[in-house]
Amino acid sequence: MTRNDKSVHDDLWESAAQWLPVFSRAEQHAGIVLLRELAKGEAVTCSRMAQALGTTFGAAEALMKDSALHPFIHTDGGDRIVGFWGLSVVPTHHQICADGRKVWTWCAYDSLFLPELLGETVEIESHDPESNELIRLTVSPDRIISREPAHVVVSMGRPDAWDQSSAARIIATACHHIFFFVSRASGERWQAKHAEPATLLLPLDVGFDFGKRSNAHLFQAELARRRKAPDLYPALP
After folding, report:
1. 156 or 6: which carries more pLDDT confidence?
2. Are the CB atoms for 214 and 16 separated by under 8 Å?
3. Cis before 159? omega within 30
4. In a 3-state reduction of DSSP, which class is residue 203?
5. DSSP class of residue 232?
6. Tens of pLDDT, residues 180-231
């Protein structure tokens, strides 16, 4: 990466950071608990969240419906949560698998930062939207372990075009423009056909770094708490 490339990527991150919400300590804990419940592969009810949090139904409902988490929660139209912060039990273009459990992500980028939040190494399968070629990645909470093919890149839209008023709007304005590509050339062909909104093509390692920065911005206190007390979140069944 050239110095100029690094500057562009740092500028993009600074723009994204201004868009990101601020979660309280309680919201950070509830957010990671919700992600881990969704990672079991089924929609999550408020009753189940209350049980997972060890709190009352009313307290869990307030966190799900009246807190900073709410715009990032995707429901089935009723009271069941089917997605949160990029993780979904509804099939999408991007599949992740941990210990045989299959779930999906709203976009390619989500699959890079979710392993750290879940505390799990995942296998990712996606398809290049231009060539339809299969892309396979193995990503741990700390690094990209493997990639196939070798020169995968990820598209990223400009954060000022993202609408965070609801999960549906986030998916429409951000996630629908964020994909993996088998090569920069394939990504550039796709970009030429999808000029609006403008996107950048990022090296895979830069996309992973963005995810680490995002996790630190949103969940720093809870991730630090988990590092000090690893048993806080036991291995998913």
Report:
1. 156
2. yes
3. no
4. strand
5. G
6. 999 999 999 999 999 888 899 999 999 999 999 999 999 999 999 999 988 8
Residue 18, C-beta contacts closer than 8 angstroms, at least 6 positions apart = 159
Q: Please, are residues 218 and 211 in contact by the beta-carbon 8 Å criterion?
A: no
81-84, strands of its sheet edge to edge: 73-75, 81-84, 87-88, 101-105, 94-98, 122-127, 134-139, 144-148
Pair 68, 23: CB distance under 8 Å: yes
CA proximity to 159, closest of 205, 115, 113, 109: 109
The model's pLDDT over 46-75, given as tens digits with 9 standing for 90+, comes to 999 999 999 999 999 999 999 999 999 999
How far apart are alpha carbons 3 and 48 in whole angstroms? 48
Asked if 117 contacts 32 with a C-beta cutoff of 8 angstroms, the reply is yes
Say how far residue 202 (Cα) sits from the centre of its chain: 16
Q: Alpha-carbon distance 169 to 186, whole Å?
A: 27
**What pairing do the DSSP bridges indicate for beta strands 81-84 and 87-88?**
antiparallel
d(CA 115, CA 112): 7
CA distance 106 to 93: 8
Q: How many residues does the chain have?
A: 237
User: For residue 233, what are its two tokens?
Assistant: 């979140």
Amino acid (one-letter) located at 31: G
Cα maximum dimension of the chain: 53
Round to whole Å and give the CA distance between 202 and 72: 24
